[in-house]
Specification:
about 270 residues; Rossmann fold; 10 strands; about 40% helix
């Protein structure tokens, strides 16, 4: 997505994937802090680094600070600035899909970095949900996340539940922010038999139609995968990194998202060809 946009706008940069294991993270972080040791002018991080990357930053945007996690890092003269484009990227896609959460009951599966972004989206602000139920395998982790957010934000009513079936009884919107669904053999994060027509289901998994999305659609629920969130968060990161360059070319936010969306579709199609 990023390389397609770089080509379109004639920006002399390249986006590459780097595999950094948790064991390799300390050395990777050391290089990023050492002047001249890394060619990176900006980078994204994904699981499991979204929380630990904050230690690299000399400054945090409000969104990264509120989330307690970051997915986008921008080099500045003073050091790295941490941002979180997942939360606004999710909000943008939910609104486009007309999956309303204001004054609704939301079930959020997960308690990691992605769940932090989703929690900030649906549980804060003037359009926050009435009630958010966190479902997670580790109840302690979910309760820790709730306490952390409650200590510094005005929130919707938050409830932790280890019983996914019970949580769905009054749900209007279900968001899967776990890694379940990334692999074909993964179990469904919430009981499919409890999903009913009239619900909205959003699965952050973006590279395949998951059993959760497929099952929700089969009973008449509105359901979508995470492609829109992926494109939006990528476009927002791109805008942070190349703000000055984009002022010199024909650019609109919509055009950037269209370019990135087409690039994603092409890459996914190539990946799934026999």
């Amino acid at each position: 997505m990023h390389n397609a946009a770089l080509t379109q706008f004639g920006i002399p940069a390249v986006y590459r994937a780097l595999r950094v294991s948790p064991d390799d993270w300390p050395e990777f972080a050391r290089q990023l802090k050492t002047p001249g040791a890394s060619p990176l002018e900006g980078f994204n991080v994904t699981v499991p680094h979204k929380e630990r990357v904050l230690a690299l930053a000399c400054a945090l945007t409000d969104t990264a600070s509120l989330c307690g996690s970051a997915n986008t890092m921008i080099r500045t003269p003073d050091g790295w600035r941490a941002d979180n484009t997942d939360a606004p990227g999710l909000a943008e896609d939910l609104k486009a899909l007309q999956m309303c959460w204001k004054d609704k009951n939301v079930v959020l599966a997960g308690a990691g970095g992605a769940a932090r972004s989703a929690l900030l989206t649906v549980a804060t602000g003037s359009d926050r949900a009435q009630r958010v139920i966190l479902v997670n395998r580790s109840r302690d982790r979910a309760e820790g996340l709730v306490k952390e957010f409650q200590s510094r934000l005005e929130l919707s009513e938050l409830v932790v539940c280890s019983d996914g079936a019970g949580a769905l009884a009054s749900a209007d919107l279900i968001i899967n922010a776990t890694s379940l669904g990334l692999k074909p053999e993964d179990p469904v994060p919430v009981p499919l038999e409890r999903i009913r027509s009239g619900m909205a289901v959003y699965d952050m998994v973006y590279h395949r139609e998951t059993p959760l999305v497929r099952g929700a659609r089969s009973v008449g629920a509105r359901a979508a995968g995470g492609k829109g969130m992926l494109v939006n968060q990528g476009a927002l990161a791109f805008e942070r990194w190349f703000e000055t360059d984009l002022k010199k070319v024909h650019y609109t936010p919509r055009l950037l998202r269209e370019i990135m969306g087409r690039a994603f579709d092409a890459a996914l199609n190539e990946r799934t060809q026999p």
